[in-house]
Amino acid sequence: MAIADVPSYLHLTDADVEEIAYELDVIRRDIEDSLGAKDAAYIRRVIHFQRALDVAARLTIAGSKSKAGWLLGTGALAYAKSIENMELGHNISHGQWDWMNDPEIHSNTWEWDMVGDSAQWRYSHNYRHHVYSNVLGMDEDIGYRLHRVTTDQQWRPVHLATPLRNLVLAAMFEWGIALHGLHSEKLRGESSDAPAAEKRKFRAKIVRQLAKDYVFLPALSLRRWRRTFAANFTANVVRNLWVYVNIICGHIPDGAETFDPAVLKDETKGEWYLRQMLGTANYEVSPLVALSGGHLCYQIEHHLFPDLPSNRLAEVSVRVRELCEKYDLPYNSASLGRQYFRTQRTIHGLAFPDWVVRLVRRRSSCR
Hints:
Elements: H1 14-34, H2 37-63, H3 67-93, H4 118-131, H5 162-171, H6 173-189, H7 196-220, H8 225-249, H9 269-278, E1 282-284, H10 287-292, H11 299-304, H12 313-326, E2 333-335, H13 336-349, H14 354-366
Parallel strand pairs: 1-2
Helix pairs in contact: 1-9, 1-12, 2-3, 3-8, 4-6, 5-6, 7-8
């Protein structure tokens, strides 16, 4: 699908598209011009909170003798890991805080607490995903090479295993991200294999991460190493599930379109903005939940301005929604539960051949 073929945009003139781009540029400029000490204090406060919570959770896990204490500590650890992965790792790697010129909080130096190498992920995510958002054959985040999420993707018998593949992907999402980054290095090198140096980095990061979570930290607990081992494993799985929910709810719900590569030919800045808006979706959650998800509940705004600090996306969303109302454009936002239901309906529905999908839709429309 091309931008010109999207029904929601048929009423726009070329002048409208240019004006939309101008107004979005004004929003970006206003935020950039207002960045300052309060924003820097925010990200440092989040870092301190996340690290303090991580330590407190681990002490609770190791020191408590009750099952309730272990559950409390493990829950706190999962929350701390989610903040580290999303609000810190994801957003810092986007360059959202590079304007501070702080070498410890910079996209080129930050390494997140998961098996994937952040440098490899930056190319696969910041470039291939955000530049070519939802363009088939260009954006590999479309289904993560596992799921069929649009009828424009050819159905294959392996898609019948979608329910199982979906559960495995969700529980092991950090491994999917890691392999995703390594695969992108193959594409960047235009060869069948990733460069040897990238493979060594990939393996080294995995070894360091597994050693930290399942050898070093459990060893510090001495005779209670099993509690720490189990807590780390459980917290990692919970974090993976939560990251999975955040990502798919921003990209796969009804209304999130995919595009043909032809859309990139002579694409204007305004058309790029429109592609971001149509290919993403927001979901409504509380501030504490938004923090643990990296504020990707504002996925539309994040895709419009991926390098703007996450703590400013809420105010940006007000202006973007007003812009959509002004030009009679869709603003895809709903509760987290509703968006999650929509994603699962799409993923599991498209696991079947097209003729089955058409038959079900025909019968549903006749009721």
